[in-house]
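For consistency, the fold was encoded as tokens, as this record shows:
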Amino acid sequence: MPDIKNTAHQLAEILSRYRADYIEAHLEERQASYITYRGRELESIGKTTAIGGNVRALVRGGWGFTSFNSFSDLPARVELAIKQAQLASGQESKLAQTEPVIDTARTTANNNPVTMPLAEKKQLLDEYNDIIWKIPKIQTSIIAYGDSFKKTIFLSSLGSFIKQDRADISLRLAAIATEDTEVQQAGLSLGSRGDFGAIKNLHQPVAEMARHAVALLSAPKVKGGEYTVVLDPVLAGVFTHEAFGHLSESDFVYENEQLREIMVLGREFGGAELNIVDDATIPGLRGSYRYDDEGVPATKTYLIRAGKLVGRLHSRETAAKMGEKPTGNARAINYRYPPIVRMTNTYIEPCSASFADLIADIKEGIYAKNWYGGTTSMEMFTFSAGEACMIRYGKLAEPVRPVMLAGNVFNTLMNIDAIAGDLAMNQGGGCGKGEQIPLPVSNGSPHIRIRHCLIGGR
């Protein structure tokens, strides 16, 4: 396999020969392994390796992009990107100014999960699958495990030369139970920055997941209507990411006139206690890194502060177009794609209330936990909780079928009237945007209380 470090030095010298408003290149070496089960059967298992790169050029406002998995004839790759950019040119190039960076960012402490034997990983997942299938009324199950270790080098015509590495692990389990015509499911999703220990010793949670799927078969349905709802950190984090976080990605805002009229900085979107943050600088989270895929340092960006919209997420291009500062949120899933504006670790900051405080004065409400699906369209959202129970006279009461929450995100933010102090970050899953999925991210929240939340039901 070619040495990407030597190739990067060759490519840096090649970039200096060509003229464009801006040129950048990425080189990547990736190892990965995967194990999937469908029902009782092992569906797939294996390892992969990949090596490749890309060149992106900007000429008079037009971008050119080419990716490749062979390091032969690198000058031709640069020339192709510049030629594409020239064909798309026609206006002034706009990129926010950043300082060139020369750095090596070792973010994983040489923790490479891919080197762990597949047999050892499979043995653990076999145990989890056996636990699921010991529970009566389970109809089928799904287990999807993946890990990776990636080395990247970023270089640019500004003089940047950044070496980074990252490890990643994700695990998703689901149990589906049936009885007569009833079908119910429960899931568990986890991840880490290469620490396999994060997905070990889950035997009890896996059993509880399977039993919960079966219990839902006989749980009553909630009558649809408006309720005061308390969301757990997982569901509140997903709501924050999906319903609001994507609206804060500035390429989406810049390209949508209707959204630009809504997402005006300084506008009030919630109470004084509401703070929403995107922060790529938190150690150990799946959305964290030292530099984004444009070589911009990672930042902590407040999106909502004290209830008011104060920021959004930027690439260098969107920051220049909107007259704001770059935030280090330009990310690509791999070398085959150009970077676009993406979230990192997005969460609601904690306050001082306890969970008991949140439910104390609720006469009849719903406690919704976990999640297994949802859709968003502009400011409208629909999410399905993974589990739920009633709240009656300030106490948790009977379990009910998972509920569906729907509404307008801006109205819902205004209706958050209590935020607990128990922030937790969800490391499972991945974010999708365009064709680039799943990008490692994290999201989280404390428990939050929402008044006048619309719940679908019988």
